[in-house]
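hi! just following up on the protien thing from before. the input was this:
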Amino acid sequence: MNGRDLIACAQTGTGKTAAFGIPIAVSLLENRHGTALVLAPTRELAQQIDGFWKSLTQLSGGLHSACIIGGMSFSAQARMLSKKPPLVIATPGRLLDHLNQRTVNLSQTSILVLDEADRMLDMGFAPQLTRILKYLPQKRQTLLFAATWDTAVDGLSRKYLHMPERVAAGTISQAATAVVQKVLPTAGNKKNETLLDVINERRGSILIFARTKSRTDRLARYLNSYGLEAGRIHGGRTQGQRNSTLAAFKNGEMRILVATDIAARGIDVFNISHVINYDLPRMAEDYIHRIGRTGRAGLSGEALSLLTPEDRSQWNDISKLLKKTGSSIPVTCSLERGV
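and the predicted 3d structure came back as:
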């Protein structure tokens, strides 16, 4: 890195974590007095970044990190922060808690990374970002990473970045090209049966997206009742439950994971074969992030959306976005043809 601010846009699964993690490690090795802060929208993404950092720096003495997220012990995090780690990886809410309690000092931060900045804005973190950045020095390098670009992200960059360089890998907001997209028409009262048939026709790991916490719970119970090992992740579960479920899914102990959009970004499971949209996302851009959980790191994948007559308006918005970005248009399939 040459010290300039940076805006980087790329499809999911293209190695954005390495794109900022490796240069930060080099910078901190060259300047042992420097520190860096990475802000992420979700706990899982923050933990993933922390895991990458620990693997990257395991042979580099002194480059330890502190992962500051909700759902974990505040006092244990305060003890980690008291050791003045060169890198702090945090979600905005918990970091503000520590700033309010004066258990963290950001006045010497030389590098700031806003990872998945578009998602942070979608989740309503703009006020928290404004408060956090008041604690950082004006003279710093700021790196902004996003998978989609809109007026809100553009406004954020104008507010906090100074004459940034811009890098784009592929077309901004474009669906991952390694993912075969399909849509399967069904009726609202037959979605569960259709989902069961779809799962039974497929091999490999499956990530299913549902719209609400309660529906995620109900779907996981329904699948379990048919002898399918299905876990669930949503914001209502404890961090320990989320961690253990995700670990079982990653390790292949559990074939099916049902999740809300909390898993749509940052969950880097290498070998997800299929993504199923049981419910369509409320925002068209989230469709891009959901299906990007498969077809990562050069592998191919399949994304299948269950479409009821009530979903037509949302599906039209998704189709318009796909056409606008030059993405592949999903093909309509039947259960017999959709394997």
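The two ends are 45 Å apart (CA to CA).
The first strand starts at residue 6 and ends at 10.
cheers
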